């Protein structure tokens, strides 16, 4: 039995070659996490080399599992935002609050609870209760969010006082690397080439080499370190780390991570499903229970491996744009992560960040009299073009929103702008859900709202109140 039949490639209008290219493309737009995640976790005391191994192997295991179980083009890795929340809110800078092993135990507990919610059918029921226009707002909002991330990562925009952002500094070489990649993607997409994004990544890498921003690595293989594995079961201070989460503060942290995980994944899956063509007309995602189950296992595995919560990556959109339509795509991406665990110096040339002086990125803050951060600022110009183009593809969902339906259009709009402006998928969704419920209540149509939507809106409201306290 060949790959064609195992993954139903013909039925989905794809082939092995396209899926491999899509998997590699997805990996190249995600592989920055192998370098960024350990750096964030290291600030909270997690050993850097061990965190690197855990990040790569964790992404590999769960991405391959997603491909085998669901046959959908969804790759996973340690989630940005989750890692910062864990490192700086739960553990605390340099372990000022709790040992990092206890922080990983919090992640494991959150993943197990989310998995129970999936198996009970509650997570799927909540997803199906969301009105279609709000789902479209989520997809478009995420598209705008990752486009903004790509523009910032590539230096085409940069932070500024008052206006928040401004055009980037075109005297910087990394900006031209970003443009080389983005324009190559646009050009070859206009020519109808399915490999446009992969070509664009290659063009950006060549430009970075020519500008001297990256170099061929001096070493190829880096040693693996599994010392963070099974961290929740490490004995810290005379007690098993997992037992130490039974405090009001850490149980609240479990709830906060769970709420964020619950809706971040939901938004990403809906957006990618629409782009890949398997979102049904009523907004349902076929096989969603399996997808959510693997994603929940990813959160648990992230805590178990010591890599922070592993979640469905919106960067999968780049692979879908490349033509990926099956589970073969995340399997290829997962195998690339296995290679990354051994060949991180080589992978780092493409996906790693390029350090520029912070003053160059925050120049307008200096002019306005603000104190500048002393550390270098990391940019990701080689992959930025692919991220920006993926955002464009996802933004196309905005045309499907029924803008003349006030009670759904306003919440969809708030989700659309809330996600990129708060840099949080869950916060954007929360704003929209609360306003949707309020509008229905004011109009005397609260009975039209699914009871689960009301419960979720109240949960978000309670979350914001508790967070403010």
Summarize the amount of helix as a percent range: 55-70%
Helix and strand sequence: HHHHEHHHHEEHHEEHHEHHHEHHEHHHH
Strand content: 5-15%
Please identify the structural class as seen in this structure: mainly alpha
* First-last Cα distance: 58 Å
Stretches where pLDDT is under 50 for at least 5 consecutive residues are: none
Can you tell me the overall shape?
Answer: globular
State the major sheet. Answer: 2 strands, antiparallel
Total number of β-strand segments? 8
What is the mean pLDDT? 86
How do the strands line up in the largest sheet?
Answer: 1-6
Report Rg: 21 Å
Task: Give the number of helices.
Answer: 21
Characterise the protein shown here.
- The chain is mainly α and 469 residues long.
- 64% of the residues lie in helices and 5% in strands.
- It is built from 21 helices and eight strands.
- The protein has helices at residues 3-6, 16-30, 33-42, 48-70, 82-91, 100-119, 122-129, 132-153, 173-190, 196-210, 248-276, 288-305, 316-321, 328-342, 344-351, 358-361, 363-367, 381-395, 406-422, 425-442, 451-468; strands at 76-78, 157-160, 164-167, 235-236, 239-240, 310-312, 354-356, 377-379.
- The strands form four sheets. It has a two-stranded antiparallel sheet. A two-stranded antiparallel sheet has the order 2-3.
- Strand 2 (157-160) and strand 3 form a beta hairpin.
- Helix 11 packs across helix 12 and helix 19 (406-422) packs antiparallel against helix 20.
- The chain is globular and about 65 Å long.
- The protein starts with a helix and ends with a helix.
């Amino acid at each position: 039995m060949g790959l064609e039949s195992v993954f139903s490639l013909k039925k989905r209008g794809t082939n092995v070659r396209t899926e491999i290219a899509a998997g590699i493309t997805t990996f190249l737009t995600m592989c920055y996490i192998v370098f960024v995640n350990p750096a964030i976790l290291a600030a909270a005391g997690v050993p850097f080399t061990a965190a690197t191994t855990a990040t790569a192997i964790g992404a590999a295991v769960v991405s391959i599992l997603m491909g085998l179980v669901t046959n959908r083009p969804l790759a996973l890795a340690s989630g940005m935002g989750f890692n910062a929340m864990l490192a700086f809110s739960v553990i605390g800078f340099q372990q000022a609050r709790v040992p990092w092993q206890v922080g990983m135990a919090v992640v494991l507990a959150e993943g197990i609870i989310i998995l129970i919610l999936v198996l009970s059918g509650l997570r799927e029921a909540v997803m199906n209760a969301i009105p279609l226009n709000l789902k479209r707002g989520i997809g478009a909002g995420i598209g705008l969010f990752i486009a903004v991330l790509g523009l910032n990562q590539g230096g085409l925009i940069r932070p500024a006082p008052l206006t928040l952002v401004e055009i980037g500094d075109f005297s910087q070489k990394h900006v031209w690397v970003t443009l080389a990649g983005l324009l190559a993607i646009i050009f070859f997409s206009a020519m109808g080439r399915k490999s446009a994004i992969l070509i664009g990544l290659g063009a950006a890498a060549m430009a970075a080499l020519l500008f001297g921003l990256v170099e061929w690595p001096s070493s190829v293989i880096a040693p693996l370190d599994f010392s963070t594995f099974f961290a929740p079961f490490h004995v810290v201070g005379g007690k098993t780390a997992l037992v130490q989460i039974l405090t009001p503060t850490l149980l609240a942290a479990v709830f906060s991570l769970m709420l964020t995980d619950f809706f971040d994944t939901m938004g990403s899956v809906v957006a990618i499903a629409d782009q890949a063509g398997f979102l049904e007309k009523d907004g349902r995602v076929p096989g969603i229970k399996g997808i959510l189950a693997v994603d929940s296992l990813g959160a648990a595995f992230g805590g178990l491996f010591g890599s922070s919560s592993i979640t469905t990556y919106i960067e999968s959109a780049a692979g879908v744009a490349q033509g990926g339509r099956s589970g073969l795509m995340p399997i290829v991406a997962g195998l690339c992560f296995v290679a990354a665990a051994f060949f991180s110096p080589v992978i780092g040339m493409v996906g790693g960040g390029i350090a520029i002086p912070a003053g160059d990125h925050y120049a307008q803050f200096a002019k306005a009299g603000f104190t500048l951060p002393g550390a270098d600022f990391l940019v990701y110009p080689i992959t930025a073009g692919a991220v920006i183009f993926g955002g464009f593809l996802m933004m196309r969902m905005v045309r499907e929103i029924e803008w003349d339906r006030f009670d759904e259009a306003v919440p969809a709009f708030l989700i659309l702008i809330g996600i990129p402006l708060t840099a949080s998928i869950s916060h954007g969704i929360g704003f929209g859900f609360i306003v949707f419920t309020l509008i229905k209540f004011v109009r005397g149509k609260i009975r039209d709202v699914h009871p689960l939507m009301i419960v979720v809106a109240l949960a978000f409201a309670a979350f914001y109140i508790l967070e403010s306290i």
